[in-house]
Amino acid sequence: xxxxxxxxxxxxxxxxxxxxxxxxxxxxxxxxxxxxxxxxxxxxxxxxxxxxxxxxxxxxxxxxxxxxxxxxxxxxxxxxxxxxxxxxxxxxx
Length: 93
Known about the structure:
Blueprint (H helix, E strand, L loop, with lengths): L2 H38 L5 H44 L4
Helix pairs in contact: 1-2
């Protein structure tokens, strides 16, 4: 296996790890949002309003984080394709 092929394999493993982490985070966050929805339905008052504002800010940060991770993953996948093409053009050197 060439050095380039080894690097491509490592980058593909990294891409898969990013995907697994994104899926796990999104699943866990989905459960949290669902729980908050049920809790918010029965929780009221000033404390509820303050917590709600903080929770919504967290939701926004989580979405921003997910978008950033998706952008990183997209860039990584594009680089992997370029490296594969380079490796194929050089016969797996």
